[in-house]
Amino acid sequence: MSSVDRQLDDLHETITSELPADITVSDVKYEGPELVVYTRDPKKFARQGDLIRQLASKLRKRITVRPDPDALERPRDAREKVMNVIPDEAGVTDLDFHEDTGEVVIEAEKPGMVIGRHGSTLRDITKEVGWTPEVVRTPPIESSTVSNVRNFLKQERDERRDILERVGRQIHREEMSDDEYVRITTLGCCREVGRAAFILSTPETRILIDCGDKPGAEGEVPYLQVPEALGAGAQNLDAVVLTHAHLDHSALIPILFKYGYDGPIYTTEPTRDLMGLLQLDYLDVAAKEGRAPPYDSEQVREAIKHTIPLEYGDVTDIAPDVKLTMHNAGHILGSAVTHFHIGDGLYNVAFSGDIHYDDTRLFNGAVNDFPRVETLVMESTYGGRNDYQTDQDDAEKRLKEVINDTYDRGGKVLIPAFAVGRSQEMMLVLEEAMRSGDIPEMPVHLDGMIWEATAIHTTYPEYLRDDLRDRIFHEDKNPFLADQFNHIDAGEDERQEIADGGPCIILTTSGMVTGGPIMSWLRHLASEEESTLTFVGYQAQGTLGRRLQSGWDEVPINDGESGRASKINLKMDVETVDGFSGHADRQGLMNFVKTMNPRPEKVLCVHGDESSTQDLSSALYHEHNIRTFAPKNLETFRFL
Amino acid sequence: MSSVDRQLDDLHETITSELPADITVSDVKYEGPELVVYTRDPKKFARQGDLIRQLASKLRKRITVRPDPDALERPRDAREKVMNVIPDEAGVTDLDFHEDTGEVVIEAEKPGMVIGRHGSTLRDITKEVGWTPEVVRTPPIESSTVSNVRNFLKQERDERRDILERVGRQIHREEMSDDEYVRITTLGCCREVGRAAFILSTPETRILIDCGDKPGAEGEVPYLQVPEALGAGAQNLDAVVLTHAHLDHSALIPILFKYGYDGPIYTTEPTRDLMGLLQLDYLDVAAKEGRAPPYDSEQVREAIKHTIPLEYGDVTDIAPDVKLTMHNAGHILGSAVTHFHIGDGLYNVAFSGDIHYDDTRLFNGAVNDFPRVETLVMESTYGGRNDYQTDQDDAEKRLKEVINDTYDRGGKVLIPAFAVGRSQEMMLVLEEAMRSGDIPEMPVHLDGMIWEATAIHTTYPEYLRDDLRDRIFHEDKNPFLADQFNHIDAGEDERQEIADGGPCIILTTSGMVTGGPIMSWLRHLASEEESTLTFVGYQAQGTLGRRLQSGWDEVPINDGESGRASKINLKMDVETVDGFSGHADRQGLMNFVKTMNPRPEKVLCVHGDESSTQDLSSALYHEHNIRTFAPKNLETFRFL
Ligand SMILES: [Zn+2]
Ligand SMILES: [Zn+2]
Ligand SMILES: [Zn+2]
Ligand SMILES: [Zn+2]
Ligand SMILES: [Zn+2]
């Protein structure tokens, strides 16, 4: 009998002895980090309000109760009873009964009303029908990404349960080593921005944190092939943890499955969906640019299938000696500061991922309050001595000026923007500016992936800034649903019509003018002197965006029909509005550490160019007397 | 056709075109780092004195010429002709003809006379018979180790040639990576003394430097199992380099062959022999102490078979992007500072191994003059703030006092000493002291492995201090052959007789009184108040030597016959004579770096306890403004 089976037997016995005699436990299993308790008496279980919480705190495990399949009411009988329990205002859009696990997935416009105060409505459902309810939000804006992911996971339920069971046994395996150490190996993203990838290892466990590409430097991928990474086989990784969906962190995660990885990916639910969206786009772009994609969509699906979503603040066992907790990072939807608690009080490491320290319109500022942290691995994108950003108020004022000036001239405002994050921030600024009369009401057209990315945001309001979330939850004043927002979904004809029309604002990808619908918009608008091309995000060296921003006035045009390349002259006004950034600036990074609780003993400054990481490292050392490092790629640091 | 075959074809062509038309080249092969040129005209080749040197410098390769087997004179005809060429005074003791390679191995008491001025006699031999001569020294003192190694290698010639050919092709393989980095991974010996093991890696090549055990801490072995070491398989190592034979550097080399390693070990010839001796003793001790040995003698033989001996100063290709040069380290016979030249002028790393900076009686001081060195990995055994040693003159004076006092009382001097290094140094001190009349003539008995280790020293006089070597070479005044030295080879009876006799000196293992014949000597001499137990080397914490040194007066005795354990009272005088050490002291370590040419940019201080490595690291930083580190085990440093 394996040690895990022995453990489960012991748990079975303990749970039985803790429960009232009339509640029988038919089986006890691990599924991923959860302990699943099967009972023939789900209704009785539900009636004893606090039983699960008591068990969980006694066993120090996350516990899910499921009815034994034999004890289940038939779906056709249960459906009506379930609908009777849930208030009509909840807006249930789908009920899906899974007889294999006794779960009923309830998709509703207002999940809160399905849950009830402290979960009371959920318990009522079980008391009525015995089934275990699980609630998901009906996307307020239809999102093909969200529905594709949900449908795919529904299809793959059986395999997914196998994966979860295997992962569960792996997490709860017996510890084998009596050695003690904690190490971090840098596989990318050191003294550079891009290809984030780190290995956190103990004698017991090896965890890969992020696995991104390097934008603008295809081929510069993380050092996955060195012995300490996948040299000994991808199956030697215990877990992958993803801080957020940006491609410089997520692009190469699917390749792991090509290399034979078959374990879990821990991340937030919105990151899972955004990751799928961005990875598929990444494959698209590679194909369009005639590069061989490093993996195909099959591996993107594998990545999604292997994802175990965590909520901010959940403390989750991911290995016998490692507990993971994700916290809001304030950077993009679902972005997380990931905190690793190693051993039983042995050591704690936090990876900042990308962070924004102050609150933005979209997100609360990054969390920097932890039970313990000895070492912090910290982004340094704007860590340089002089990397101070315009503050958001001034940035918004300037943007409104540009819009008003352009409007007064009868022109259009064309804003290249990243689909995820920057665009939604812009939408919130524009919606409020129009509502408050700071700028005139006019259509705001959303082109490229922006609409889809926005739809994903509205599916996960819990991950947005608290007052924004409240607006979406309680007041039905979802700003993303404002009338002025128009999704460009009819292609060139629609663009032509808009180009021929009056003043408007166009938000479109790609953010650095390296391809996508912005190219078409430039073709339509280049000759309009009254219109304005407005940059609101960082333009990397070597991109067309950077060239146009610095005064270049030629736009290369690839005539789709004839296939001939030509150029047109840019006559538009070109403006740059600084101060919209998903990254903390120098002051924000310093503040993150200054107000961090507790103050870390060591900080590794990564995710910044050489001078930024070294500047930040030296500033943190001098101001706070912390041991700081600006690692190179391919180094290994040992703590303990 | 593989790239190596293409390379060899090109070389074949170039060599043919460089040679006079009447010399034909029948084949060109790599054997280890050497390029072997087979010719049907060996005699003509030999007649053109400088041809090989010219070819070598043109091709930048080490070149060996061998006769095509078809072109060979028969051994029975050749034997007499060879003997006629060599002067009688050379003292040839064996001629061994190898028809497979056309080599004749000549064992002689005076190899120099077989070689002749600038190799003239060797060339004469080839001119006469066509065979390629190779010369080895007849050990002046019979050494079973040396003759066992030589016989074993003779037996295994075929397999050894296969190994060399495979290694040769591996060394000269095409470089695959266009990435550039140099890394050092610490697998042991950091903030501790023992289990030396480092990996030097480039994108192309992975080299293991040393693989020792930790004396007094069985089971604390180098971290070979981590992914960056052997995790991806031992076959992923390209080469093993051994700095010297001490077990804290060599003990676990044979285990690599158990793990599937099948590549070369680069070290000096004396280190190869001493390594074999010490490893077999290591297995013996493990067996006696009832521990399961980590490998058996079969793997020790594998290690010897895979050794490619290098001479000090030879610049040797050991990988497509790495050249290795070994230099005298002054520590023990054959010990080397190993210098790695990486890429074509890309980077240079030196590993000090264990060093002695000043000259000793046995060895010249460590070499610290290199074409280039950017990073030095340096031992720190006596790197602590206060680790200054008595100087050698004072130490010798004190030793002579102890001997004279004991002699005057009619007692015996019992000196526990390490077989390799310290014992031979003692022998030289004693021989000179008697010759110059500083102490009376009396027998010096050598027990345990000391005699055998001494025999190995006399086999390799080229590795000894220059004036000592000259005495052995030119004057036949080999001090190790002095009459007073007596090899204890008749066991307990002989010891009893000596114990019953008059004043004498006894040098015996083990050096820290942890076992071996010293235990028997203590039983014989413990009660003699007139005799002296004299410590001349470091006694580690926890050893019986340390306890006796600090005043303990009970010696546990295991009565061989009855098997009963008992104790006897130590009545002997106990003296400690400091100042004999194979290691540089704090001053020596500082001087090694201070006078090093060129000064390294970075120094990693290893092979010392935590405070020694940190003290030395901080002193080097403050005095020379070098970037210094006191690494932990399991870290990886990247240079470049
Ligand atoms: Zn279903
Ligand atoms: Zn990001
Ligand atoms: Zn990033
Ligand atoms: Zn040594
Ligand atoms: Zn050593």
UniProtKB/TrEMBL annotation, chains A, B:
Domain of life: Archaea
Textual note on the cofactor: Binds 2 Zn(2+) ions, which are required for nuclease activity.
Binding-site residues, Zn(2+) 1: 244, 246, 331, 354
Region (Metallo-beta-lactamase N-terminus): 181-385
A biological process from GO: DNA-templated transcription termination
Positions of region (KHb): 73-140
Stretches assigned to the Metallo-beta-lactamase domain: 194-418
Family classification: Belongs to the metallo-beta-lactamase superfamily. RNA-metabolizing metallo-beta-lactamase-like family. FttA subfamily.
Name of the protein this chain belongs to: Transcription termination factor FttA
